[in-house]
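Quick one before lunch.
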Amino acid sequence: MKPLEEAKMKCGLEIHVQIDTKSKLFCSCPTNYLDVEPNTNVCPICLGLPGAKPMAPNKRAVEIAIMVARMLGCKIITDKEIYFQRKHYDYPDLPSGYQRTSTPIGVDGEFLGIGIEEVHLEEDPGQYNPSLGLVDYNRSGTPLIEIVTKPDIKSPEEARAFLKNLMTLFRYLGSLRGEGTMRADVNISINYMGVQGERVEVKNINSIKGVYKVLKYELIRQKNIIKRGGKVKRETRAFLESQMITKSMRAKETAEDYRYIPDPDIQPIIITEDWLRKIEEEMPETPLEKKKRFIEEYGVNEKDAEVLVSDLDMAELFEKVVKALGKEDVDLAVTWIRNELRRSLQYHKVDLYESGIKPEHMVELIKLIKDEVISQKIAKDLVDELVINRGKKTPKEIVEEKGLKVIKDTNFLEKAVEEAIKNNPKAVEDYLSGKKEALNFLMGQVMKITKGRAEPRRVIELLKKKLDN
Ligand SMILES: [Zn+2]
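Model of the zinc ion complex:
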């Protein structure tokens, strides 16, 4: 039997994330909807009351949208007016009956090999709780950025990597609220056994993991339909997170269903070249630019640079440490930050920004290692200690407190070496008969006796001196 061929998947994403402005998109109500009682950050505009006229679009929100579009390599629309349209649909969280959504601010970008169709602004609706029948309009009118990709994504893994990197990019930019406020719609179609399925849309997925699960699930569901000789039909589906499956909602709506019309109450936006230049000057370095700079400026290898810049806090910590120590210690900084600190943070499930660990801690640690005050083994434990006590004690304090300094006393070390030799005659015999690796075993025993406070180099010297005679 012929093995089943792989399905070819085509996926595009529409990603919404809140923009972190103080006030809403078309009124001056605050956007901190999580911190206040329901329906307190509201006014006639964001409640959509008849006759209420929106204010001019929040300038900061427009500027952030322009920055996002630029960071995604989009061409900014400067040669024509950008206006807000009314997108009509009926839902309890949308009292006006339409959502305001802008025409594209940027188009034709590319990020990590995935084409970006367009970037535009939208207003968030309120929050409806169907089981209680209650609506909270605090969120209504909060600015959202929407990013629409081209259908260039070919696997669930690629979608996940794209979104993770997009969230990192948002962290670099600041001013965006990140994955916690993300809602994504995914489009997916497959070509399988020579049959092209229609495009299925899954709406309102609110985590990167959710997007990954949806794509995995749809891939299998659509393959099974085709395998049975059926047709994948064009439709919109919902993601049931609790069961990790998707469920049919309705036949796909088209643009006509939304009856888009320009909002006559809102002045169009014109992005002038001057304004654009000013915004570009304010733009922070992107992860890709930082990676390039780490490679060129500090001689970090590509893989290490990539890992470092994937976490903005780690990249910044690294750079401060290197600046304090000097460029000759770049390798030590990479080892102790990119490898050891990262390992410990992951093991203890702590993010760097909440770990309390500052550049000074790592500078001090690396100096202790360089000056041979502590052994490598102890230094690793010390990194864990720093993470566990959230940087409340400095490396020096921990070393003093726990007596972790390297043993320089030769007598003491010699005694430890003698003990290891006495207790392990088999290893000694192996070594003497030419099995050099037995020496590492003996060194391990000495380390045990000294609780890791011996310098391996000196232990090897002493072992050889005793055994080779
Ligand atoms: Zn308002």
